[in-house]
């Protein structure tokens, strides 16, 4: 860490907790303790976040290789570790990551030092203009607006108002032919599960309150975007994993989706 680092190792951060749950090393003791408490409440979490990360890798390959996007703009990226988007897309793809947590941003700059075509900025996913109106980002894009956008594992951290604003702004901003890979962390049977509520309380205390909502509410919030012909696909189908990776008690809380749905929203 730089001498004048803003990283505060005495407080847990959602991004570093996520890194620990993924098996990463960019975290402090305080994050590991918080993550262990989450695992006690929700033992399936490491498997659920791993599945979500596999789905993120799938969509990065789909966007860059099969759909031909050479610019991917990712919001609420968390730490750009070696299983993130820029590691799975073809060389030369421009990847613009962002996160609103200055701790994550500082760590990300260390991780990405010297990596070509990959950038990381501080920005709020609820206010996508914060990123897109930055001079540096406009220079990187050089006027390109037919791009791939990504919101993965972040919907739960955004209010209805933030999501609606983001959807409307991005629809106006993006050129026709753009695509938005969107993860609806939709409410599952366990939404009212005491452990889910305790986990929500913990995130709130860390300054990252979470919202549990239904797929239908997500659909309303992301208007006017609509999914392509595949519609919203459950995580289990998206990555093609077997439901048996989760125990029956995991599934009671997590639901039969594996933790949410993904869709390619089209402009
Ligand atoms: C669960 S991680 C998801 C990381 C990554 N998108 C993925 O799918 O692996 C959530 C990240 O979202 C960030 N975050 C939460 N709310 C945000 C917001 N309103 N704007 C930007 N980042 C946000 C947190 O700082 C954290 O790094």
Could you walk me through the main structural features you see in this protein, from its secondary elements to its overall organization?
The protein is of the alpha/beta class and 267 residues long. The chain has a single domain, classed as Rossmann fold, CATH 3.40.50. Helix content is 43%, strand content 13%. It has helices spanning 14-21, 29-41, 45-66, 85-88, 102-112, 129-132, 135-141, 160-173, 194-205, 215-221, 235-239, 248-254, and strands at residues 71-75, 94-99, 118-122, 148-151, 179-184, 226-227, 233-234, 261-266. Strands 1, 2, 3, 4, 5, 6, 7 and 8 form an 8-stranded mixed β-sheet that branches. The longest helix is centred in the N-terminal third of the chain and has 22 residues, at 45-66. The model has no long low-confidence stretch (mean pLDDT 90). The structure holds S-adenosylmethionine.
Instruction: Kindly state the percentage of residues in helix.
Output: 40-55%
Rg value? 18 Å
Report the sheet with the most strands, covering strand number, pairing sense and barrel closure.
8 strands, mixed
CATH topology type: Rossmann fold
Overall pLDDT score:
90
Report the portion of residues in β strands.
5-15%
Task: Give the SSE string.
Answer: HHHEHEHEHHEHEHHEEHHE
The helix-and-strand class reads alpha/beta
- CATH architecture designation: 3-Layer(aba) Sandwich
Q: Give the count of structural domains.
A: 1
Count the strands? 8
- Catalogue the ligands: S-adenosylmethionine
Write down the overall geometry: globular
**DSSP helix count?**
12
CATH superfamily: Vaccinia Virus protein VP39
* Straight-line N-to-C gap: 41 Å
Q: What is the CATH class? A: Alpha Beta
Low-confidence stretches: none
